[in-house]
Design goal:
- The complex is a heterodimer of chains A (531) and B (257).
- By secondary structure, chain A is an all-alpha fold.
- Chain A has two domains: 69-278, no CATH class; 302-518, no CATH class.
- Helix content of chain A is 73%, strand content 0%.
- Chain A is globular.
- In chain B, helix 6 links the parallel strand 7 (169-173) and strand 8 (200-204).
- In chain B, strands 6-7-8-3-9-10 form a six-stranded mixed beta sheet, sandwiched between helices.
- Chain B folds into two domains: 1-6 and 15-91 and 168-257, P-loop containing nucleotide triphosphate hydrolases (Rossmann fold), CATH 3.40.50; 101-166, no CATH class.
- Chain B contains nine helices and ten strands.
- With 257 residues, chain B is of the alpha/beta class.
- Chain B has helices at residues 56-63, 85-89, 107-117, 122-135, 151-163, 181-196, 208-214, 232-239, 244-255; strands at 18-27, 30-40, 45-50, 71-76, 79-80, 92-95, 169-173, 200-204, 217-222, 225-230.
- The chains are: A mainly alpha (531), B alpha/beta (257).
- Chains A and B meet through helix 12, helix 16 and helix 21 of A and helix 1, helix 2, helix 3 and helix 4 of B.
Amino acid sequence: MKTGSLLWLIRWQLRLGWRDATARTKPWIWVVLVLLFVLGIPGLLYLAFGDFAGRFSSLNGLKPDVGLLLGASGGLILLLTLMLSSAVVGTLRALFERGDLDLLLSSPLRSRTIFAARALGVVVSQFLGTATFIVPIALLGVLLGFWRLLGILPTLVSLSLLASSLGILLTLGLVRVLGVGRARTVAQILSALVGAAFFLIFQAQNILGRGALLELASSLTRFVNSLRENPAFGASSLIWYPARSIFLEPLPTVLFLSFSSLIFAWTVNFTRRSFLRGVQNEVKGDRRTRASSKIVHFSGGLFSSLYRKEWRSILRDPLLISQTLLQLLYLIPAFFVFLRPRGDGATLSSGLLALSLNAALIFISGTLVSNLSRIAISAEDAPDLLRMSPRGETRLNTLKMWAIVLPIFALFALFYGLLVWQGLFLAFGLLAFLGATLTSAALELWFPRPTPRADLLKRGGQSGRFWLGLAHFLTLAGWVGALYGLEFRSPWSLVGLALGLGIPLIAFLSSGRRRGKFSSSKRFSVGSSVS
Amino acid sequence: MTQTVSTSLQTGTQTPALELRDITKRFSGKTAVQSLSLNIAQGELYALLGSNGAGKTTTLRMIAGLLEPDSGQISILGHDVSREPEQAKTPLAYLPDDPLLYAKLRPMEYLEFVAGLWGLEPRASEKKAQELLEWLDLWKNRFELTEGFSRGMKQKLALAGALVHGPRLMILDEPLTGLDAGAARQVKDLLVSFVAGGGTVILTTHILEVAERLSSRIGILSGGKLIAEGTLEELRTRSGENSLEDVFLELTQEASP
């Protein structure tokens, strides 16, 4: 391989990417996953649909109609949106955060080659990330004899090129206006919002109700019919070419691939020129931070100081909010279910509905408290400041726990108010909610895993938390189980209670043992070095 | 704010500001500090010098209660750090080389939090915080989040945090790192006035000129041991060299195996 060529650069990138991936997950796990994917999915598909093999070959001769093309185009747009948000994150890493671009640009390599290699890296990661979920569909098509679905693969290549190009252009714009740090925050929030939007789309029936959904379907049908009558949107229109490439129609496939490749080539050239002009130094927005002219008056009191400090730090961090408080968004569909008039497609009995809603509240509040306590206790920004203050670290962490839990109680009181109003309140549900939130916070208090806040959402920030995460999950599952057991007067409630109380108790006892066994020097030695 | 930083020093007391008795600390079998004893009187400015890895930061972290020694005893103004941590830490301010700040807080909010940790009366501490920010030229930045501050601004804010609770003993690890000439002069003036007001300062620095000009006594660490201690004159006499740089290099080379 010629040194300094495009392929040589891509090989270097792949090597770095592999090191990055194996730093978090052991290489053998990757090998097992790839084998499972390559052998397992075709095997499963054959087991499930083997009896229908080759029976749908007649579909290959059919021409897709406007309705199908509209649906396929909608799917492509959704996929493009998903890929775009991750392309922005990938571009930030490839162009601004890896830190070796200056080295490469100062070398005798052609800058066009460098940027082409970088951008292709983004394209490949988009393709691989999506292919995992899409390739089984193409495989199923081949199995059933509908081989035209193989067109999904070139379509995916075109989509990856387009999404990466748009992602790169969007990132350059964001970096120019906001700077690298905030551009990353915006990208992560966009990604979380897109995820939440998909969840809400899939929950459309719960949110809108079956009647509204049927009404939407009939308007869509009317829209498709009006398209059919309009010659500009006929099945042979250019607008449907991307969708037609899914069915491996030669001209649309070639044209869609050529169009996305051209856009990609133009983007690479534009990026190169932007970099050589110094896009990374052209931040237009105020690099300092948002200023607020609010006068601060000291409140006094240890709890009040801690409370204000914790919530100010959390609420001013949009990235943290997007990753933690966004969970509340997932509550929306659950509550639309019972805010809709009864009888409108409701399938659950009132008792089961009450139980499900109470269980959802327990799980979401517990997860929320667990995440927020982790931010406040384990990811303290200045742990040394607290340790050197006259108050003990344990006392400060206990106060932090209450600073987190009390506002969550207030927030969820609203949801419990709704339950009471709708006659869906369960006393055991409230007890399990209190147990779940308090034990979730206590787990973090008794078993903290110190992580710098800046690293909390970085890759690798989760390391060492597997067992704690499992303990959190089992504790919450225990409380939900206890609720079901108590409602049905089942002895299984005892198992749930044993989990919900037992796991935090083990954490407490082990934290006591750690305190006794090791001197505080062990606890303080995190990050300390000989100097 | 006036340039004099006053402390509520008890007059006539003989209690040392800091006393270290036979302190030893090991990390994974490697000795960081070995049988270290120090006695620093109130009103002294003591410079702790040493090469990289000599044990300076470990010593300061043990004094601040962030590390517990494997053996030995540390007392601050007569209070044992491990047995009476609250009394020992109340008069103490520790300023590490990496400032202990919160990226998402504004300067006054940070000082409010520190005041809360030390249990100060809100109105008086708010007034003092404002004076400190004005004096350190950070008042104009009071509405900005700390994350946008330069290294020097962060260092100055951490200094305000150390001073807001009126300490009697200040421990500073490389306090001039990242400061421009103006800010460095401000910090040096502050230390001199703090000591003049009865406070005690212990600092580490690689800038020997600072130790030479400011300190009343100097201790030199090498391999975790105190190899020399005294006034600048005493050290000069001992090594026969003129500048502190020559004295330091001579003594540390002598001590290295």
